Amino acid sequence: MKEPNKNQKQKSVNKDEKRLIIFSIAIGFIAIVMAIAKAISNNPKATIQELMQELPYAFGVTIICLAFVALIALLFIFALHIDFEPLDEAMKIYAEKLKIKRLTKNAQYVYTQLQGFLYYILRANYSILNIPVENEASLIPKGTAVSVHNDCITMQYEIICPNRMLYDDLTLKSILNGFIGKELYYRGIIGLAPSYKNLPSVYIDRVFYDGINREIVISTVYINDEASYEYCKKSFERDRKEMKNGKAIYRLLKLLSDR
User: Which of 51, 67, 194, 251 could form a disulfide with 184 if both were Cys (CB 3.0 to 4.6 A apart)?
Assistant: First the structure.
């Protein structure tokens, strides 16, 4: 659909101005007639001289009303010529900041609880994962990192690791989510709910090795509302398909290599 050009917009504005001026004149005329009618109704038998004495007050009230109408008309005409796009953009940015502030209200608490939980998972399964963590602080060498995407809060943890991971990203992600799901089912998580609508409440959204900084980056989501639930539900399905396709490719490559 084509948007109206500037000439069309200007014509529309001019029409609105003309209508507003005609409307204001009509209001003024009606107000004057009503003022005269009011003066006559107050004293039907009054002479012209007596009516002239009452009219100044009636006209004074009328002028005040007309001034108010004129002010509204001027403001309306002024508004027609203003470009509201920068203001709309500023309001959208402000609204987005307020939304993020609301969503991340309890993020620091959740971040700390997940930090301790992930540390336990990594330490308890070190023989399988081989990810070095000495203490909980090992997960946040650069400090807290929280981001919001599609109303879903993601909490990022980074672990200094001189050597590359034993597994590829998708495999490690699947293994971690398996350990997390098992731990949540049997023992839960301190200070947080263990599940949300039959999904484990903690989900590893992404894992990758940053070769430049020599660190493992783990992006985690705590599922506690509809936005995070829908986001992770889709991710679960996507991961399942990727793992299935990965196994099929592995079997094909193995079959070709055996020939």
Answer: 194
